[in-house]
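Re: weekly structure request thread

Next one in the queue (469 aa):
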Amino acid sequence: MNAAAGTFAPDGRVQIRWIEQPLDHFDKKEKRMWLMRYFERLDFWRPNGPIYLFIGGEGEAHPGFLKAGMIYELAKETSGAMIMSEHRYYGKSMPLENRGVKNLRFLSARQALADIEKLLKRMKLLPGFKNSKVVAIGGSYPGNMAAWLKLLYPNLIDAALASSAPVLAQKNFKEYLETVSDDYEQYGTPQCWDYIKQKFEHYDNSFKTKAGIRKLKEEEGICESSDMNRPENQQLFVYSEASAFMGVAQYGTEKRIRKHCEQLMDDDSSEVKNNSLRSIFINDSKKHLWNRDEECYEIDFDEIIVEIRKGGSWLTSWVFQMCNEFSYAKSTSSENQPFGKNIPIETFYKICTLSFGPEYDEAGIEETVKKTNELYGGLTPNVTKVIFVNGELDPWHRLGILEDVSYDAPSKFIPRSSHCRDLLPNRDGDPDELVETRKYIKYLIKHWIGIEPCDLKDKRKECKNNEKS
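Done, posted below.
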């Protein structure tokens, strides 16, 4: 089943496994192989019980995803096995030693889906899994993959949950910041939206003069060496500041949005006096820009390109997938947002061409986006037994399926819910609609794999447990 011996995670319930995969599933002349990592948890499993696959995406896979939430509850209630796949070119699943531009040609959703197909087929060869139903579960980009697995391998995948899945590739994702704007306008304090608009107008005005730039550096803790006369550096700074709001909207709640506004608007807040946008919500973009030696934010567009080309982290892999498959580029192209005009779509094209080559220009990206949507079906995939779930607050819902594809491919849109929250366990403060959607998801998946509320054959104990749940 695995190409190397499994080792136990610290809690002893999740095993780390490895499986040999082809470097290229679609080129028979390419003979090289590599080891893909995945996690396995079998303490609830009984022979021929369902296989629940939690799909890893643009980051390192972690066993914690098999310890709570939707997949855990389904496995516990139906005597299922849990596995989590790690996406090629992320975490420990590196097909080649580095992420150099030439090596990245083996990175794509299509190759990663074929990796999962091989993993599941290998599992199904084992006697205890021969008759197991397979359920694919994913959130965000892995949500796409869950639906696409059902599309490409309908005889292997019996049901799928696509949570917060942006299945539509789009060259200019201007709607992202529109939704962030809507969230703050609807759930923030009365003057919050205007405050944000004024803040970003202040940035734009500061960039117009040397004195303004000098003052902005002092206000925002930008390193003196950063050339803020350069447009690309201005855009990088504005994007990093807007990311604070993106993060709250994407992952927060209506209460979190309101609290963020209250902190921003509180004139007596020490956080505001010490730059609230940095202090309240330190995001990945800001952390990446922090210069520990100088204790300031180093805004250097060229350095970002150097880091991407080095290929030392997941960032290279994901930027390549954006440039080569999906784009998903956020921009301030829309007038219906308060973040100014300093996140132009052209900057994304520049990142792609400087990082990976001239073929990744606007025309190249437009063509790859078109091919992606043609391959997988965009907003109308030809699938059954897939449920698409999106949250109102989540900006990614603008690229998701918000209406039923068919009777057997329904959509659920959850008011006041954010990115992938349906995959988490119930907690205090969850909207009633979110709690009910989680129940519906579990009911539907059980129904699709042939497990009705009191139809667990002779497993009377499980039947009673399900009735209580």
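The first helix runs from residue 70 to 78. The longest strand covers residues 14-22.
Next request, please.
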